[in-house]
Design brief:
Largest interface: A-B, 62 and 60 residues
Number of strands of chain B: 7
Distance between the termini of chain B: 64 Å
Radius of gyration of chain B: 27 Å
Strand order of the largest sheet of chain A: 6-7-8-5-9
Shape of chain B: globular
Order of helices and strands of chain B: HHEHEHEHEHEHEHHEHHHHHHHHHHHHH
Largest sheet of chain A: 5 strands, parallel
Radius of gyration of chain A: 25 Å
Helix content of chain A: 40-55%
Strand content of chain B: 5-15%
CATH class of the largest domain in chain B: Alpha Beta
Number of helices of chain B: 22
CATH topology of the largest domain in chain A: Rossmann fold
Distance between the termini of chain A: 58 Å
Helix content of chain B: 55-70%
Number of domains of chain A: 3
Order of helices and strands of chain A: EEEEHHEHHEHEHEHEHEHHEHHHHHH
Number of helices of chain A: 16
CATH superfamily of the largest domain in chain A: P-loop containing nucleotide triphosphate hydrolases
Oligomer: heterodimer
């Protein structure tokens, strides 16, 4: 809903269903406001507060809950790709450990902001060595994206973790544990968060849709699962984006809001190219890129996913995936996407001809 | 409380394994005088280096002053802390103070500028015992290695880890199955701290542990990479194969090494050529990934090498054992060789007033020929050790012998200067060069 404020008070209410964040303040300036309820970002609004509310990571949740029950905690290393619940688990763990005062004893730092050795020697050490507040037996430092720390900084962290273990526990999160040096891995209990399965994504999206009073069709749920690729953040963002447009969400809304081609459109494109019809394939390509506004790299991503699952001769499959990779690499080097995408289709046709 | 701290051994006799290292430390401490060389404890993480140093101090009644990588270790800093304490007595009346420099191989190039040199200087002046700790002995500065005595700590055997875990279980009142203990000990890969941590993480809030309970804590990494390689050689659905590769904790560059190391299992030369072509293409993607920090390219590397090699194998399977990449061993060796070569080049560079690159590119062949002709003389002149001489001779046994003989001779010459002089007329040329000041050797 659009609220317009004059001198700080509500004067008008326009276009229901469209959240807008601006409010005019008494001095005439426009202030951006985050309103609890309608206008917050849903991944924050619906971020599970309790460990038990986290979906799709049951084994891990059970272990973390038992840490809370017993009141003790080892250093932890959470590994896994984006949007699988690492940060949520760390924050929920802290909330359950400390209750209302959790923010006094919990600190979140993102290692990718400051990744040098000084951040460990100064900020981290400073936090770790001061005593916990409010009768807690230790504090928790959550170091997000710890794999972004330089090797030197990680080396500086290792004795800190031991020397201040009586006042502070560390939770490190990273995408790949292989980027964390062995001495640190040796000091942590390692928990691997897997990409979320379709059931977990559907469960959470349905829950949110229910609370928001949205009607989401089964096809739309499938589309969200396809778009999300195991990343809950992406799933919820797609849902919120679609909800801004309509209360009744079908698959086309999801594909449109996420600028994603429908899987069958991708299949058409591949069928035409592998069938040797360059002109038709090129028309389909142009439609997707120009009329549907799908980003070239997203199209590459979708073609890759479709090809991996496609039932074709192995040698051809490798050759086609290699062509996509080559195109992706050239785009990353700054080549023109129009030319490279058309060249990709041409290469598909040539490869298919060779293996026919 | 964290179990790794709670159950850290307090006395030397509680240290698990590494008996000879512990004995060496004890004898060093017992016989310590101002002239004793400091020790360097080196070995993998979690094998007891830091614990042994603290336990030693406890047994000897020494105080410990620790400097580790979490402290800034510039020259003034090290001198201030270690320097002053190394020259003064103790306030609390402890007989000595043990200065412990942890993570000595991790001196930061910029933030810790001058740190290595300061350590060497302090070693020279110290009135207190010093112990350095490092993971990588060859990562230590050369001057440090020369001024210290190495003590190697080896990875622990599972049978050395299990008893310790049992003690902890008993103390904590946890009943843990033999299977679970064996699994933890095996998973830890010789790392006691990791084993204790896994036990701790699995045991919190429970008083009974089975094999099933411990397995959520850490996934069996090695078995999955073995599984992946095995699956690659059997025919498997492409999507399954890629899904399996996401289960493997290792990054594509590691997977690539494993695949390459096992390409010999492909049935015939044609399929082998195909396999190599795919791995080499994947390698390009991996290179691009790191060069541009564009991690999307990883998936093409994975797909091309997995699907490509899988197709080349044609479901043939692996007949024989899946081996870890032999390249790693070779890389370990060549890393050491490289370190020796760099150190030698730098030394020669200073002695001959020639830039290191020039020495490497233009003089190395010549030097090799010269050293071949009279190795003993070059050992004396350039003060080569056996490793360095071996770079020229490529004959480990012979190099060791020559260096040993040269050392013996030098000792004899020190003891009996008169006799040596008599023998000299036979080798006048050598005598001349010996009188030349260092750095102006006639060799060049």
């Amino acid at each position: 809903m659009l609220y317009i404020y004059a001198s700080g008070s509500l004067i008008a209410d326009h276009s229901p269903g469209r959240p807008v964040f601006d409010a005019i303040m008494s001095d005439g300036n426009i202030k951006t406001e985050r309103m609890e309820g309608d206008h917050t970002i849903w991944i924050e609004k619906y971020r599970p507060r309790r460990l038990g509310d986290i979906v799709g990571q049951d084994d891990i949740v059970v272990r973390l809950q038992s840490y809370v029950e017993s009141g003790s905690l080892p250093h932890l290393l959470f590994t896994g790709s984006a949007g699988v619940g690492k940060t949520t688990a760390a924050v929920a763990l802290a909330r359950e450990f400390y209750g209302d005062t959790w923010q006094m004893n919990f600190r979140e730092m993102n290692a990718s902001d400051e990744r040098g050795i000084d951040v460990v020697r100064n900020q981290i050490k400073q936090f770790a060595r001061t005593s916990p507040l409010g009768g807690a037996s230790f504090k928790i430092l959550f170091l997000d994206e710890a794999d972004a720390l330089t090797t030197d900084a990680q080396a500086a962290l290792r004795r800190t973790m031991e020397n201040y273990a009586h006042t502070c526990r560390f939770i490190l999160s990273c995408n790949y544990s292989s980027k964390i040096i062995d001495p640190i891995q040796s000091r942590c209990a390692i928990y691997r968060f897997r990409p979320l399965g379709p059931e977990a994504v559907v469960e959470e999206v349905s829950r949110i849709a229910g609370l928001e009073g949205l009607a989401v069709s089964q096809e739309a749920l499938d589309a969200i699962v396809y778009v999300a690729q195991g990343d809950m953040r992406r799933a919820i963002n797609a849902l919120q984006g679609a909800a801004i447009l309509t209360r009744e969400i079908d698959e086309s809304t999801i594909y449109a809001i996420t600028s994603t081609a429908r899987p069958d459109e991708i299949d058409d494109l591949l069928d035409l190219a592998i069938g040797g019809d360059f002109d038709a394939a090129e028309r389909t390509l142009r439609h997707l890129l120009q009329h549907r506004g799908i980003a070239p790299t997203e199209l590459l991503n979708q073609c890759y996913r479709a090809l991996v699952r496609r039932d074709i001769e192995g040698g051809l499959k490798v050759a086609l995936i290699d062509s996509i990779g080559e195109t992706d690499f050239r785009l990353s080097e700054g080549a023109s996407s129009d030319i490279q995408m058309e060249a990709l289709i041409a290469r598909f046709v040539l490869c298919a001809g060779k293996y026919a | 409380m964290d179990w790794t701290e709670k159950y850290r051994p307090r006395r030397l006799q509680e240290i698990a394994g590494n008996a000879s290292a512990v004995r060496q430390m004890y004898e060093w401490a017992r016989d310590w005088t101002r002239g004793s060389k400091p020790l360097v404890l080196y070995g993998k993480p979690g094998v007891g280096k830091t614990s042994s140093a603290y336990a030693l101090a406890h047994d000897m009644g020494w105080e410990v002053i620790e400097l580790n990588a979490s402290d800034q270790r510039t020259r003034p800093m090290i001198e201030k802390i270690a320097g002053s304490s190394s020259r003064t007595g103790s306030l609390t009346g402890a007989s000595r103070k043990l200065i412990l420099l942890d993570e000595a191989d991790n001196l930061h190039a910029h933030a810790d500028r001058g740190g290595a040199k300061a350590i060497v200087d302090i070693i020279g002046e110290s009135m207190q015992p010093i112990i350095l700790i490092a993971n990588d002995y060859y990562g230590l500065a050369r001057e440090l290695k020369a001024a210290t005595e190495p003590v190697q700590f080896r990875a622990l055997q599972a049978r050395q880890i299990v008893p310790r875990l049992k003690q902890i279980c008993a103390a904590e009142g946890v009943v843990c199955s033999e299977e679970a203990l064996a699994w933890i000990a095996d998973q830890a890969g010789g790392d006691m701290r990791s084993a204790v941590n896994m036990l701790f993480a699995a045991a919190i809030g429970r008083n009974r542990l089975t094999g099933e309970d411990v397995r959520t804590v850490r996934k069996d990494e090695r078995s999955t990479i073995f599984e992946l390689v095995a699956a690659l050689f059997k025919s498997r659905d492409d999507a399954d194969l890629l899904a399996l590769s996401y289960e493997v904790e290792d990054t594509p560059d590691t997977v690539e090494q494993w695949i390459e190391g096992n390409l010999e299992h492909l049935p015939d030369p044609v399929s082998r050529a195909r396999g190599y072509a795919c791995v080499s293409r994947a390698d390009e993607y991996i290179g691009h990934t790191y060069r541009r920090q564009y991690y999307t390219l990883w998936r093409y590397a994975t797909a091309v090498m997995l699907l490509g090699v899988s197709r080349a194998a044609g479901g043939h399977g692996i007949h024989g054992r899946i081996m870890p990449p032999s390249r790693w061993q070779k890389m370990g060796r060549s890393k050491r060789q490289k370190a020796i070569r760099t150190a030698l080049t730098n030394k020669l560079s200073i002695m001959t007033h020639t830039p290191p690159e020039t020495l490497r590119e233009e003089f190395f062949t010549l030097l090799t020929l010269l050293v071949e002709r009279d190795p003993a003389r070059y050992v004396r002149e350039l003060q080569l050790d056996a490793d360095e001489l071996n770079l020229f001779l490529q004959d480990r046994a012979r190099s060791a012998k020559i260096v040993k003989d040269a050392a013996k001779e030098a000792k004899a010459a020190e003891k009996k200067p008169a006799k040596k002089r008599k023998a000299n007329p036979e080798e006048p040329a050598e005598e001349e060069t010996r009188q030349n000041p260092r750095g102006q050797s006639t060799l060049f």
